[in-house]
Design goal:
The chain contains 23 helices and 22 strands. α2 packs across α11 and α21 (about 725-755) packs antiparallel against α22. Strands 3-4-9-6-8-7 form a 6-stranded mixed β-barrel. Strands 14-15-20-17-19-18 form a 6-stranded mixed β-barrel. It has about 800 residues and is an alpha+beta fold. It has 3 domains: about 1-45 and about 270-405, no CATH class; about 55-260, no CATH class; about 465-660, no CATH class. β1 and β2 form a beta hairpin. The protein is elongated and about 105 Å long. This is Putative permease. Belongs to the ABC-4 integral membrane protein family. It is a multi-pass membrane protein.
Length: about 800
Amino acid sequence: MQDLRYAIRQLRKNSGFALTTILTLALGIGATTAIFSLVNAVLLRPLPFPEQDRLMWLHQQDHSLPGIVPEALSYPDYFDWRAQNHTFSGIASYHSLAVTLETSGEAQHLDAQTVSANLFQVLGVAPMLGRDLRWDDEKPGNHTVMLSYSLWQSSFGSAKDIAGTTIKLGNNDYVVAGVMPKSFQFPLEGPAPALWVSLADDTTGKSPSTGQRGNDSLSVIGRLKPGVTLEQAKADLNLVAVNLARQYPDSNKWYTSALMELELQHMIGDTRVALRVLFGAVTLVLLIACANVAGLLLARGSRRSAEFALRAAIGASRAEIIRQLLVESVVLSLCGGVAGVALAFGLLRGMVRLMLFDIPRVEYASIDASALVFAMVISVVTGLLFGVLPAWRMSHLEPVQALREGTRSVAGSRGQHRLHNGLVVAQTAIGLVLLVGSGLLIRSFVHILNVDPGFDPRRVLTARVGVPFDRLAHDQHLQFYNQLVARLSTLPGVQSVSAGWPLPMSDSNASVSFSIAGKPIAKADHPSESIGIVLPGYFATMRIPLLSGRTFGEQDGTKTVPVMMINQAFARKYFPGENPIGKHIQADLGDDVIEHPMREVVGVVGDIKRKGLTADVEPQYFLPYTQAVITNPFLTIRTSGDPAAIENALRAAVHEMDKGVPVYQVSTLETYISKSVAQPRFQTLLLSCFAAIALMLSAIGLYGLLSYMVVQRTLEIGLRMALGAQRTDVLRMIVRRGLTLALIGLIAGLAVSAMMARLLSGMLYGVGPSDPVTFATVTALLLLVSLTASTVPAYRAARLDPMETLREQ
């Protein structure tokens, strides 16, 4: 306590030093705490389900493909896995669904999930109100729904008697079974579902999806039985998969089973690597801050050498001196930690706002109890880290020598500078590592922005309309879109209107198998590629070039020759060296959707980037919407001005045609492009900010060292100048000292950067981890900053008056 009181008095007496140190530490601790909160929420926090280690994500694995490519299951395969396994207490399924909720005459689009009756039991979560789903709810005709807490509040006024009531979804009435707890969300990736409906809806139609073994659309989870190991479960499901492949060779020939811990791998994806890199980068910033503060303490310690020499002379032990100095360091770091936590609140809020891409569970990121404990721990550790070197140095002072060096000497103490020099070298090396990383990401991001997506995203408004399939027949769907396109085409400022699905960069996609006339192969070996469904004028509106043949037109109707178009990648892969125009291909669409006759290829269009600017171009074929009404396409409206200005007119046009049809996912095409590069933009911006902070701290550290050296060597400099040294000689001497330290740090930093840059290879596009331009640029930048930091104290030293200096000394 006596050491603590003395430390506080010392800091109050040296308020300028204390404030500088606290702000430096606040910057490092605050940034580290904010990044930790993100990492904790996304990667470290347990899933909100009991005994989560027994929850597994189950999927198929096509062993004909290289690498691990998880694939969904069909309903028949899911039913067989559920019935034939011996290692799971329950296996449940789910897949995404879009529904329209009608309340008080208003239509509202909602994201939902179709789930098996045992999903919530497998997860181990019970409803907050009402009952759970039952096996009877899976029978055809039983329309049952579970509401999310947020939907229960927003649309039903938190009615306690909601269970058992009926709500209208689309054209059907659904019985509300119950309401899930406020904290419940499943699946965790993607938009939070507003409700969950029983799979009974998938049992209807001419050919229900529950009977289509080749329709792989289900995600599946399972809960292991007590005592069952992962290896036992894999062997069990592999045996089931082998039996199914033998029994159904047309659809299951190439599939085995696989499983992994629920969500934590497949929902995070490459975000895991990015967060780890950012956490490592901010840790390096904290280390630079520690080195900077250690340098400040060494400089301050040299002025207190006489004090501690006197303490040692009158009986203070080394342990007591070390304890006193470490207490001062920890007090400083704790003050910096408090300021850092306050800074972390703002930093975390800003980082979450910068994330225009979806990271699962990021909404749970907060400065909570775990973040506060983390901040306190790193504050104490930081205090010990930057305090131990100065404390060790001061505890080893020889009283007589220290008292002699405490007087004004000619050269000062060399020992007082060695540790300080080493800290400056370390700061420079770490700063270079961060600068190289940020430089590589910046170069990569510039390459991404220069990628041609294959279409023109400028001034295009996109939207979806929820035309109900259970209320309108296919021909009525087509009539609705034709009338809507005609209405929108007359709006002022509209150049062209069409519609298509999937929209590039929208995360919507479907892969459908097909066969080529004249190339007969077994059904199990049919290739599968992405499909597109488009209205006439789509390629012109999107400005996707037509390379050969023609596009779809009014002549391609329900009673005309079935046609299709393909992209250039499809033509290269399946018709190398041939003219694909006039070839015939049969798409294996579901029987309940449309007949799938042989279709004539009538046109070839240019390749587009569908999944992102960095993704590879993939083969794709297109069907006219008139001949394949299977989904609600995205409207694409090209305008001559701001596309957002016609949103209200779009909504009004749809409302006039049908009040029960919601308009949703309204956005510009440029926004989709921006979101597709949001993750590399975020990680580039954040790492660049950390590198800028590191560069600033390194410059301050070098400036502080040289300024301190000038003060310590004032008498020496005065003598040199009195004996004939020119001001340029003094200037050169100080600058040479600074650049020498910077060069040593650069050499060490380049060696470390060459190794660390490889960790970024998976985050780079169009640039290698050993890019010479980046290394040369950041090296020159750091040298320039070091030169600037060295020049100021050197200029101050060169302006000393030798006679005045000798008189004062």
